[in-house]
Amino acid sequence: MSTTTVAVPLTNSLTAGKLPRHSGPVVLLVSWLVTAAVFLIVQLSGASTSFNVAGTLFFGTVLYCIAIYLLSFFVEGVRKAKDRLVTALVTAAFVIALLPLISLVATTVISGLPAFLTPTFFTSSQRNVVGPGGGALHAVIGTLLITGLATLISVPIGLLSAIYLTEYGRGRLARAITFFVDVMTGIPSIVAGLFAFALFSLLFNDPGIRFGFGGAIALSVLMIPVVVRSSEEMLKLVPNELREAAYALGVPKWLTILKVVLPTSLAGIVTGIMISISRVIGETAPLLIISGFTASMNYDLFNERMMTLPVFVYTQYANQGTDTQAYLDRAWAGALTLILIVMVLNALARLIAKLFSPKLGR
């Protein structure tokens, strides 16, 4: 009696029942396209006047989470579907976090570009201008001078305080400094402006004092705690072995800090300083209180009122003249200028960190 053996095809359980490799990005793109089509139909029907890009990205990402879970559930099983769902939720959180930033930048560029590209925006002030024309040169100069002086005040104080807390500080004094730095980090910006105004009003016995140096002091009050905390955390990341190796070679502590600790943590310190500058360069309330506003040029930080870009944006929007659109265009152009300045500062910070950070051999 003979038996017939039937060959059974072999299946690889490790590769069977899997979605294609690029299914995630494809499903996300299809979800965005489907949502865009829905919004386009709504717009064509007359229910909406403009195409909603932010809504398309948001609801398309939500649709992607649902679609990728269902596809994976029917093809790969419940375990892999849960894994893909969590990955999709992380992607959705990333997209949703970017939406306000993209929307803000796009709106600022679109609304501010017409006035930003005018030939007089960076070559003239608003002196004797009550309608179209004029520029923001006085505000740009004021912002650079006040923020630059605030940086010169804040960085040495903040960095030396961080070195003390990390390398020398022990006991109650160090704990007290840390406590007050944490408290200062959360104070409202207008409190810093009121502090500077009260300080110089008492010193000069002038209740109406307004000048750029006072604005720099107000901004430095806001910058110092940020510089201290960021620099302190970067200094703590330097391995103790590097310090001990320097001490073993007979290098004094101050020289170890100068030649070993600071160069090792330079990239992080510069990044923290740039973050602190970005934190204060757009402040309006303290500068409005102590620096005031003016339509004329002023290069003297110690005399008379000085205009800054945040106050320029505020005054252009709040005190609109007969030609409303001209004032709004200048306000948006001032906001665009602020964004560009912050972008340039961050690019410089990355370049400085790359050039001066220690080069480690392999």
From TrEMBL:
<feature type="transmembrane region" description="Helical">
    <location>
        <begin position="26"/>
        <end position="45"/>
    </location>
</feature>
<feature type="transmembrane region" description="Helical">
    <location>
        <begin position="137"/>
        <end position="165"/>
    </location>
</feature>
<dbReference type="InterPro" id="IPR035906">
    <property type="entry name" value="MetI-like_sf"/>
</dbReference>
<dbReference type="InterPro" id="IPR005672">
    <property type="entry name" value="Phosphate_PstA"/>
</dbReference>
<keyword id="KW-1133">Transmembrane helix</keyword>
<protein>
    <recommendedName>
        <fullName>Phosphate transport system permease protein PstA</fullName>
    </recommendedName>
</protein>
<feature type="transmembrane region" description="Helical">
    <location>
        <begin position="86"/>
        <end position="117"/>
    </location>
</feature>
<dbReference type="Pfam" id="PF00528">
    <property type="entry name" value="BPD_transp_1"/>
</dbReference>
<keyword id="KW-0813">Transport</keyword>
<feature type="transmembrane region" description="Helical">
    <location>
        <begin position="51"/>
        <end position="74"/>
    </location>
</feature>
<dbReference type="InterPro" id="IPR000515">
    <property type="entry name" value="MetI-like"/>
</dbReference>
<keyword id="KW-1003">Cell membrane</keyword>
<comment type="similarity">
    <text>Belongs to the binding-protein-dependent transport system permease family. CysTW subfamily.</text>
</comment>
<dbReference type="GO" id="GO:0005886">
    <property type="term" value="C:plasma membrane"/>
</dbReference>
<feature type="domain" description="ABC transmembrane type-1">
    <location>
        <begin position="140"/>
        <end position="349"/>
    </location>
</feature>
<dbReference type="GO" id="GO:0035435">
    <property type="term" value="P:phosphate ion transmembrane transport"/>
</dbReference>
<keyword id="KW-0812">Transmembrane</keyword>
<keyword id="KW-0592">Phosphate transport</keyword>
<feature type="transmembrane region" description="Helical">
    <location>
        <begin position="177"/>
        <end position="203"/>
    </location>
</feature>
<feature type="transmembrane region" description="Helical">
    <location>
        <begin position="209"/>
        <end position="228"/>
    </location>
</feature>
<feature type="transmembrane region" description="Helical">
    <location>
        <begin position="260"/>
        <end position="281"/>
    </location>
</feature>
<dbReference type="GO" id="GO:0005315">
    <property type="term" value="F:phosphate transmembrane transporter activity"/>
</dbReference>
<keyword id="KW-0472">Membrane</keyword>
<dbReference type="InterPro" id="IPR051408">
    <property type="entry name" value="Phosphate_transprt_permease"/>
</dbReference>
<feature type="transmembrane region" description="Helical">
    <location>
        <begin position="331"/>
        <end position="353"/>
    </location>
</feature>
<comment type="function">
    <text>Part of the binding-protein-dependent transport system for phosphate; probably responsible for the translocation of the substrate across the membrane.</text>
</comment>
